[in-house]
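Aim 2, interim progress. The first record below pairs a target sequence with its structure tokens.
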Amino acid sequence: MMDGFDDDSWGELIVGIIVLAYSWISLKIPALYALFIPVVTVSGCLVYAGMSIALSTVSFFTIAQADVANLTNQIKELAQYPISIYPKVIRIIFTFLCPVAFIAFIPSLIVFHMVNVWVILAIPLVSLIFFLLSVRIWKIGVKHYGGTGT
């Protein structure tokens, strides 16, 4: 997910860290929760990489060009909002089929004591399973790819 990371992104990263630190202190979040940041970060990378791989597989089965990168970004945009605002069908999709809720929403529930802190252990597991499943789907797509004839 580092493509597109340019000089302007460093400023956004610094501002993001400052906002995170200020919020962390203001909300009096226990320091122990900082240990979960790398877990959620790596898990997020696995989910978004898996999502990109799985959506790219569509191109093996269709003739028309699919704007996969745009679709991945649109899903990422939807994941910025609390999962509870969406209809039940969307919640199920974002939790089980494309588990962006595990990396975008559930960690905040843990911080606010709305779910057990041990749920954080499910985040890397679900992310890894999703990523490996996406790679498997990719391999199936590669086997069915007919080529362009060149």
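The second target in this work package is listed in the same format:
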Amino acid sequence: MEFEKRFATEQDCRKYVFDLRYPSGFLCPDCGAASFWYIRRHTYRCQACKKDCSILAGTIFQDSHTPLAVWFRAIWYVVAQKQGTSALSLKQVLGLGSYQTAWTMLHKLRRAMVRPGREKLSGLIEVDETYVGGIRQGGKRGRGSENKILVAIAVEVNDKKIGRVRFKVIDDASSESLHGFVEEVAEKNSTIITDGWNGYNGLSAKGYLQEVSEKQEDNTLLPHVHTTVSLLKRWILGTLQGSCSKEHLSYYLDEYTFRYNRRKSKSRGLLFMRLLENAVQLETTTYKQLIS
């Protein structure tokens, strides 16, 4: 009820986006002047250089024919669902005209779930890989499993508890792929805990402390990664019915990371604001780009 009252009209939503984009007041992107006129829907004109500026340009809302009020309700619905949502569910809840519209909105929002310049993991970090996706055929196991997508996982360990996580789709379990993943997600001088796979050899030369994990009492290596992988696969099975293509899996992983790293947040409103903050910093992606 509080959400519906605050964002009852398109003008309410436009003002919220305006405040997110210009927290210190409007500045013309061309000349830097602070004075403007409101011209038409989402468009302002600088009083100094007379250039028009859309508050939606350079955001995921650019060129969208969907009203901001509908976008806001979609974002609220997405953050309110603890386990995620499907395009079909979003279409039904919002009364959208097509499945394609709902699917496009969800994928744009998934891209906005990665904050530009986000901090890397640090301290004690478990790193491993797992296969996600298709059905294994021929009984082949391990790092050579067929018809599956290889995903690297990094789990921050704080006082023997799982902290933040990161995922990335990788082509193979070679040193080049695994070292690149570690350098992308972990701060230098962090302690990287791995299994005995030789693809991790040489991390110490890259500025990390490397430890090889020993089996636990339950006969598992890397227990925090093991738990995280189990939760991820359960989420994919429940939210995506176990189906995810390699082309789009990265964005589903971004959504899971966004939700998992904020699992202790008690404020849906704060998650709504964080996702919108990211949304106004990212360039739009068209439907053709999403399916290409």
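Residues 223-239 form the longest helix (17 residues). This observation will shape the mutagenesis plan for the next reporting period.
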